[in-house]
Fold this protein.
Amino acid sequence: MLIDMNAYLGHWPFRRLRHNTAPELVALMDSKGIDMACVSSASAIFYKNSQAGNEELAEETEPYSDRIVSFAVINPTYAGWEHDLRVCAEQFGFKGLRLYPNYHNYRLVDGACHELVAAATELGLVISMPLRQIDQRQRHWLLEIPDLDHGDIAGLVEAHPEASFVLLNGAGYVGARLGKPDNDLPPNYFIGLSRLSAVMADETRALMDNLGADRLVFGTGMPFKYADPALVKLDVLAASEDEKDLIRSGTAARLLGL
């Protein structure tokens, strides 16, 4: 089985996304041999009320509940977020949450963020954080959003040892506390494959050695990115089949309760 922890539906204001509807994404998954995908609304990142994007996602993905696992986008600085989060978890059946602090004008160190993480953890949601959504070199001139800070992420995962975090679209972990062995952080965070190197510097293998193969998860970034690079990285990775199976789906299935 192959589970993609890093996929999206909806629209992006600054570029056209292809395969961004549920039928198109599932067809793309079929063509790439991907069995399930964790999906959030790209539209919700920019809606003033992110819940509108979550509602669109719930409606569109309902016929594909065996293939698509929905993640909510919640802004903890927007009025009524507590109600919206509970609706996503209890009414829509979402399995996770995606945080966009740099798009929603708060920081991971802020009290509002800690309140959201605590509430999501109480509801049993996996908390994912894209360190970046797009490459800054290809950004629209109206959009300048920095990557999430590794130190702020470390502080958040340390403050919430009972939570489960999945870090997406990130790199450079080995040079930071998050990727070092014996870093005194709880083993409650997991790292997506999509921006990691698997040849040359081979950050993927280094993270496996430092943290364990069960701390890495497969992810493509579709439809912002092509799926093929992530598939090739997994194919060429210097790892046993048992280790690759953990990355392919073992860890993701455990986190999602599948």
